[in-house]
Design brief:
There is one protein chain. This protein has 434 residues and is α/β, with parallel strands linked by helices. 44% of the residues lie in helices and 15% in strands. It has three domains: 47 residues, Transferase, Pyrimidine Nucleoside Phosphorylase, Chain C (Transferase, Pyrimidine Nucleoside Phosphorylase, Chain A, domain 3, Up-down Bundle), CATH 1.20.970; 245 residues, 3-Layer(aba) Sandwich (Pyrimidine Nucleoside Phosphorylase, Chain A, domain 2), CATH 3.40.1030; 90 residues, Aldehyde Oxidoreductase, domain 3 (Alpha-Beta Complex), CATH 3.90.1170. The longest helix is centred in the middle third of the chain and has 17 residues. The radius of gyration is 22 Å and the shape is globular. Bound molecules: uracil (URA).
Length: 434
């Protein structure tokens, strides 16, 4: 089959066969399909879409391009979790130990910050000594002894996705539900979990700005998992404003610890408890959401979740004393307050602009090789719905010697809207796909 015919078929809106898709993925991995043909097919997929069946075949071909982690010798039910990314999205750091303390084993491979969104690996690396590059044997040892481990994606999992992702990045072909869903799911399926809970973020700070697109992505990912025999469900959660009150790596680790101690912000605590309960149900430990929720509440209130986090940090070579002594985490020397320009109610805190501001301070990267400053970031001193007086602090920017401060302040000013009346309450969970 000439590859040009495969491109033409998709261009004309016809479905691709499993053989077409396998030829594409193998061709990209073995370099027998040149980048210009691969890019042409990617653009045809963006414009014409793919059925769930085609997307499942694409995902499977990407999984088959590399190794698959075998967790079958680890006792217990292994439930993975993935977030599509947001601002202040520290859920994985809290959720992994909470779900483990509630009875499931949580093998988690995470990524770094992408665009204006933060990355779990960068947050964890702000813990002195924490290694994200464990070998698969070390990863499995931590899972066996602690019940939760968060590491970086290994290069051997779904290598075809890595190649396709870099092509998509430079050919304007990132924004496509089948391509995003297959990219994410190829890595998740290769991780070896038997069940999966997906947190699909939706709103200003997410890649999916509207519920319709978020639901389509959620349905596609759940369908792909079903085709591969993995139980999965997705929760669509709000990302209009940053999650919690801290944005930036070490600042977010402090908020995670506060949440594990029962003193975290309500939005973060609520989402963690909801997702952890779903992990307990999807993992088959409970059939009923209320029973699952009781397990999760107990894991947190008994202190077991906090202990699990501390043991996970120690098993990864990190300093376990950070749990009781936040001064062991990096902190930035400069603090600058952004004050309310008028009295009223905070009606919006645009997550994307705040994520960009945090990156401008040095908490994220512009290029892959840029170093991250773990200390800098932003603390929200007011939340959406709060009443403020003119001159009250709305945000506190933690900076190093003024680096990026002017740009960050401009972005933060643009992010805050103050109105005369409180905004309507927005639900934190916007939908579910089971
Ligand atoms: N994250 C991924 O892993 N892949 C995409 O295509 C988009 C976000």
């Amino acid at each position: 089959m000439r590859f040009v015919d495969v491109i033409a078929r998709k261009r004309d809106g016809h479905p691709l066969s499993r053989e077409d898709i396998t030829q594409f993925v193998t061709g990209v991995t073995m370099a027998s399909v040149p980048d210009y043909q691969a890019s042409a097919l990617l653009m045809a997929i963006v414009l014409q879409g793919m059925s769930h069946q085609e997307t499942a075949w694409l995902t499977q071909a990407m999984v088959d391009s590399g190794a698959r982690v075998d967790l079958s010798d680890i006792p217990g039910v292994k439930v993975g979790k993935h977030s599509t990314g947001g601002v202040g999205d520290k859920v994985s750091v809290v959720l992994a130990p909470v779900a483990a303390a509630a009875g499931v084993v949580v093998p988690k491979m995470s990524g770094r910050g992408l665009g204006h969104t933060g990355g779990t690996l960068d947050k964890l690396e702000s813990i002195p000594g924490y290694r994200i590059d464990l070998s698969i044997d070390e990863f499995k040892h931590v899972l066996r002894t602690v019940g939760a481990s968060i590491i970086g994606q290994t290069a051997t999992l779904a290598p075809a996705d890595k190649q396709l992702y870099s092509l998509r990045d430079v050919t304007a072909t990132i924004e496509s539900v089948p391509l995003v869903a297959s990219s994410i799911m190829s890595k998740k399926l290769a991780e070896g979990s038997s069940a999966l809970v997906l947190d699909v973020k939706c709103g200003d700070g997410a890649f999916m700005k509207h519920v319709r697109g978020a639901r389509e992505l959620a349905e596609t990912m759940v369908a792909i998992a079903g085709h591969s025999g993995v139980r999965a469900e997705a929760v669509i959660t709000d990302m209009e404003a940053p999650l919690g009150r801290s944005i930036g790596n070490a600042l977010e680790i402090v908020e995670c610890l506060e949440t594990l101690k029962g003193a975290g912000p309500a939005d973060l605590t609520g989402i963690v408890k909801h997702l952890a309960a779903r992990m307990v149900v999807v993992g088959g430990l409970e059939t009923d959401q209320n029973a699952a929720r009781r397990r999760v509440d107990d894991a947190l209130s008994s202190g077991r979740a906090l202990q699990t986090f501390q043991r996970m940090v120690e098993a990864h070579g990190g300093d376990p004393r950070i749990v009781d002594d936040y001064s062991r985490l990096a902190s930035a020397p400069g603090h600058e307050r952004l004050r309310a320009p008028r009295s009223g109610f905070v009606t919006a805190l645009g997550a994307e602009a705040i994520g960009r501001a945090s990156n401008a301070l040095g908490a994220g990267r512009n290029r892959l090789e840029d170093p991250v400053d773990h200390a800098v970031g932003i603390l929200l001193r007011a939340s959406v719905g709060d009443s403020v007086k003119e001159g009250d602090a709305v945000m506190e920017l933690h900076h190093r010697d003024g680096r990026g401060l002017d740009g960050a302040l401009a972005l933060c000013r643009q992010a805050v809207t103050i109105g005369d009346a409180p905004p309507p309450r927005r639900a934190k969970v916007l939908g579910e796909v089971r």
